[in-house]
Amino acid sequence: NDKKRMALVLSYRAYSLNFSSIDKIKDLHKALDLFEEINFDSRDIMFTCVDLAYFYSEISNYENALFSLRKGIILAKKPTDYLIFYQRFAEIYTHTKNYEKAKEYYEKAINIITNDSTLREGFDYGNWIGKRVFYQNGLANLYLEYAKYEEAIEVFKNMKKITDSTESYSYYWTNFTYRNIYLGMGKAYSKLKMHENVVENYNNGLKNC
Questions:
Q1: pLDDT at 34
Q2: Angle of helix 125-145 relative to helix 149-164, nearest 10 degrees?
Q3: For a disulfide at 202, which of 74, 76, 186, 191, Cβ 3.0-4.6 Å?
């Protein structure tokens, strides 16, 4: 019907480069109202809430971004849905300097991607490995930001174990990942004034440039 078509048009306009974040927020709210009025598919409502959170974050309106995520996560059903929300929550809480909450959501994402066998079966190999490393990297950099250097080093070591165990996937991806790991560990060791470890890790990082 007309309301359904209008809601879809408004929601898809959020992906256009021709509109500002504020215009996209207005369109998404209109789409959300229409979706809810006609009792449309809950996944469209869920993803509209995710998009709203993103564009609210773009204008640093984190309160409304979190409100949108809390509304949307109620409709999540699949592990991949929860990964999307946990990542967004972690990013917003990092921006708002809420260290404990950011850590909580990175750990939730890591737990799902590590332990849910359906994700290993559902993703292609590279996507699965990439996401495992991605969430670990988010947590490691969170630890660095909050001067939790020993914890950061342990997470970087976990990232290295994951990367070491990968099948032959992508030379450029593994080089990029190893470089990030070694440079991150070098930074953490530098803060701990463990200078031999700093030199070792920075040298290893340079080998992967």
A1: 78
A2: 170
A3: 186
